[in-house]
Amino acid sequence: MAEEEEEDTNAQLFRQMRIQRKREEIALKKQVLEKKRRDHERSVEKQLDVHVQEFRKGLEGFARRYGRDMDKDTTLQQTFYKLCARVGLDPVLMAQSASVESASGGNRKQYLYSVGVAVLDVCAARRDFDGGLCDIDVLVDRIQGRGGSSLRDERKSVVRKDILAAVEELAVLGHGICVLNFDGKDYVKSAPTELSMDCTRLLELFHTWEGRFTRREAMDALQWTEQRVADGLSALAREGLVLIDDPGEAMPRLYWCPAVQYHIRLAL
To answer: Do residues 116 and 140 make contact, with C-beta atoms less than 8 angstroms apart?
Structure first.
């Protein structure tokens, strides 16, 4: 009887030892698998870093090779900017030299570059509406509400002077972006087409006349000939900066500037 009990006890101990070894083997396998997983993740991260660096060099080369084409083609320009933004690269930095990247005040410059990218995105999104002339207050409002950025919290505190400084940085690239000031009111022009002095004067008149006037009113206000006014308004209309309302023979043709009209509505 005692021998049977001893055999049962030994069998139980043997089973417990087997179970314990099995548990240890499973734990060891888990450790090995976890190590392999971490090694794989580090390998993937290194590969991604290499790919990003290669892609960055490719973008830099593209910017150097086709920079002038982007100056003339807004679609190509905006596609380039959006492509950079989607992979977390700054298109402004892509076009800047290494000396600029290493300049003093890097944090401030990086912030302005981020604001500059946001300015370009907002201007591109609104171009069908305003033709590339955007009220700076609209930019402040839109940029403060943008998400999906590591600088989102900083953008919530963006003010006019930040946008003006960012546009100044962008203007160095020669893509046609600049600030136009009409009677103390700032507008950002993002369309790459250079505006003539007559076009700029007409835009200023739109601001003075709350965003709309007739051809005769412009002739009287500026003391220009009808042909000169017509040429300037036609050029602005081709760029999408001015809309034409033709009510018919009984009423004179009316010209509207969407960017200024939007500014007037904001002020009400």
So the answer is: no
Q: Which of 260, 160, 127, 121 is nearest to 203 (CA)?
A: 260
Q: Which of 123, 127, 96, 109 is nearest to 166 (CA)?
A: 109
Q: Which two tokens mark 133?
A: 């002339």
Contact 7, 15 (CB under 8 A): no
Q: How far is residue 213's CA from residue 203's CA, in Å, rounded to a whole number?
A: 11
| pTM higher than 0.85 | no
Residue 219: CB atoms within 10 Å: 17
List 243's β-bridge partners, or say none: 256
- Alpha carbon distance 23, 77 (integer Å): 61
Collapsing DSSP to helix, strand or coil, 247 comes out as coil
CB–CB of 107/115 below 8 Å? no
Q: What does residue 212 show for φ and ψ, rounded to 5 degrees?
A: -155, 150
The answer to whether 163 and 122 have CB atoms below 8 angstroms apart is: no
* Residues present in the chain in total: 268
Per-residue confidence of the chain (268 residues) as pLDDT tens digits?
555 566 666 667 777 777 778 787 787 888 878 888 887 778 777 777 777 777 777 777 777 677 666 666 767 777 777 777 666 665 555 554 333 343 334 567 778 888 888 898 898 888 888 888 999 989 988 888 754 444 445 556 688 888 999 998 888 766 678 999 988 889 999 887 788 999 999 999 999 998 999 999 999 999 999 999 999 999 999 988 999 998 877 889 999 999 887 655 555 4
Residue 187 bridge partners (DSSP): 135, 180
Instruction: Give the angle subtended at the CA of 145 by the CAs of 177 and 266, to the nearest 5°.
Output: 70
